Amino acid sequence: MADLRSRSIGATATLGRRGYPVISSATGGELEIVTGPTEAGFNPLDLLLASLAACMSMSARIAARELGLTGDFESLQVAVTGEKAPDEPSRFASITVSLTFQGALDPRDQSRIAHRAEEICTVSNSLAVRPQLRIGSG
Fold this sequence. Notes:
The protein is globular and about 55 Å long. It is of the alpha+beta class. It is built from 3 helices and 5 strands. A 3-stranded antiparallel beta sheet has the order 1-2-3, with no helix packed on it. A two-stranded antiparallel ribbon has the order 4-5. It has 2 domains: 1-39; 43-129, K homology (KH) domain (GMP Synthetase, Chain A, domain 3).
């Protein structure tokens, strides 16, 4: 994964009196947010789950290389779903990550890659320990 010490990270949401936020990354990327249940696009919960999916997929490729399994690793799909908690505060009660491998990897090697990917992934590590959240204004 990218060395975070050399890559600017962060995001800014800009929201007007009407409409949805536009998210800008520290590197200049932009993404429009949607909240309607049938609107195509990402809402804030999707973004959290998408971050985990992207991180786990890249971490799995790194893990396959570390474990000497790149010859049997063709491709990977990582599906991430979340179940919202029924009580307050609003949050995910659980998040499920499913890795589907293409290639000649046996189930044992798939499991080794998946577990090593979880150890490598900054997003999964951050979710697992609940980082300190500082809220400010100004």
